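Let's practice the habit of predicting before peeking. Look at the sequence and jot down your guess about where helices and strands might fall. Then scroll down.
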Amino acid sequence: MQSETAKTVVFVESAAAMGGVQFSTLYLAQNLDPSRWRPIVLCPEEGDLTRACRNSGIKVHVLPRPRLWSTSVRMGAARLPNPAAWAWDLWLITRAARRLEKFLVQCSPDIVVTKGLSSHLLGGLATRKLRTPCVWHVQDFISERALGIYRRAFGLAASLLPDQIIVDGRTIAGQLPRSLQPRITVIYNGVDTNTFRPDLDGLPVRRELGIPNDHLVIGHVGRVTPWKGQHYLIEAFARIANDHPNLTLLLVGSPVFDNDAYQRSLHSLTAQFGLEDRIKFAGYRHDMPDVLAAMDIFAFTSVEKDTSPLALLSAMACGLPVVAFDIAGVRELLAHEDQFLLAPAENVSELSRALLLVLGDAKVRRGLADSARQQATNEFGLGKYRERIEQVFRGALLDRHPGIELNHSEVRPAASELHI
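Done guessing? Here is the structure:
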């Protein structure tokens, strides 16, 4: 029997630009039990994630990978699969998997955790030959385009490559084949409720952004991309701005993959409404706890696919009342029906109505804020998040190496007990 030493965990990231997936990697690597796990983060390029890892004392390596072709082409209003791109990307992925395999041979990990579609394929292929346990951490909704071809292809790969699969929402788990469910664990993202807390001072951020102290601030945090729904929030704000002169809208985030066309459209929409002085675009921020402290209400306007979003969990931990579009990823986080004020997705009129209700009643704001903070501390703290993830890691090790002695007091739980 092999006695326990700290096991090396390699996180194979698909990007170094910071988004919710990358923050979840950083939070987990920072908080794994150092007596049991040695994290190494592998990125395809330098970026905010590599810098944050080094600042935290986490080992990080850069292994460049080729840029894949788009797997679909636009034909009028429709997008159709591009078989030539699929074949070319498969060849590129196979080559990149060989390079990843060589890297893994050098660092001899005990377990590999993949983040992002390309990383799932690369890591799964590289670890099969090495017989290293591989855990897919799936945090993106799988496209249902082209009659579900992408989803079925992903499900086939998921049945062949990983030992275990972590998903951060039940909607993602439901997209995968029923035969895979025993290997799937739903673990919602975690947030540091000591860093994100209600008693922080947001006045310095307000002064920096030119927001008057007597204004109520509706805030939104997220990548600037259409499915995050910032345009719906601007339109809803425009409907109530004239009746509430002491009101500011604060939008925090930057475009995805340097595609700033949508961001330009948001600035244009703001100008059309004549609200340039009332709508603040803060861009990407490193001081997110202080930025959230500058807000009075958090608006979450994603219209699809967001599962346990860290921006929303962070706002909850800061004790902000939440107004949100009613999507599956939001409902999964609710402890009870009246925890958030929900509006039908893409419905600007109902979003405006919900915002007015919260703006007009301080008691409603306090109740929503207290409920959000309590749910964040009870269910989404980093301690529970780490424990749930570590359970899956131990299960993957035991599945691949039944004779290994992990020397933990707890017995490995059944698969159903691992699910939240």
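How did you do? The longest strand covers residues 37-43.
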